[in-house]
């Protein structure tokens, strides 16, 4: 059978199934004349009539009745194979969940580079909820439809696998306009500055003050925000001094939106990790991403495996 007959067979099947050239034309998004021409051309190639018009109705000839089931079976097989291939393609999606600030400042900027070498993998990024006051830095994966999560903690999560990405270091920053209005050249000047607070990391300034003083900074008041990206935005809006993770501040410094003040920093006891469950251990896409992260970041460690 010649390839040009394939399209004509599709037209024939639609007309025979719907019992009308008009209905078939609507389904195929073609003119009635085009459909009729295709069926007529098929009949000429076969040398047999497939359809007969009787009183404004269509009737299959014996040859048409013989051909129709075979054509429908073939089209069903093609349709099923198409759906299977499409389903496999859809399963090439790797679902990620990340803390909002981490996603915005660290993860999303890396996606273009990953896709450049992994065209067959699509990443789907979701927000990872976290309350570091009540949840003890434990990633909430039960309620998140994700294959892997990016979160903050000590890496010791029972029943989870983890890859440490980098340690956290906190730095001081503010907007150029705030610094011009409130010169800060030594630690004592912070006493008269507005210190922006983090609602779910309320001890940040306490940790900084424990290392650098004065201790009164730990009790300082200031506007409070839930996420670091909000704190960065508040600092850009000239609200006050922000204590930000290095990976956040680096992007703000590069854009000129914020400037670093004072050389003092504090290394927290926690790190940022990629975390996944044992159930995802056989996910090839997951390990492709992990291998890429490890190869592109000299600060990545080998996966730290935890048992329940």
UniProtKB/TrEMBL annotation:
Protein known as: HTH lysR-type domain-containing protein
A single GO molecular function term of this UniProt record: sequence-specific DNA binding
InterPro entries, A to Z: LysR-type_TF_proteobact-type, LysR_HTH_N, LysR_subst-bd, WH-like_DNA-bd_sf, WH_DNA-bd_sf
SUPFAM superfamilies in UniProt: Periplasmic binding protein-like II, Winged helix' DNA-binding domain
The organism of origin for this protein: Caballeronia grimmiae
Family: Belongs to the LysR transcriptional regulatory family.
Residues in HTH lysR-type domain copies: 4-61
Record keywords, A-Z: DNA-binding, Transcription, Transcription regulation
Keyword Membrane: no
Gene3D superfamilies: Periplasmic binding protein-like II, Winged helix-like DNA-binding domain superfamily/Winged helix DNA-binding domain
Superkingdom per UniProt: Bacteria
GO BP terms: DNA-templated transcription
Coiled coil stretches, renumbered: none
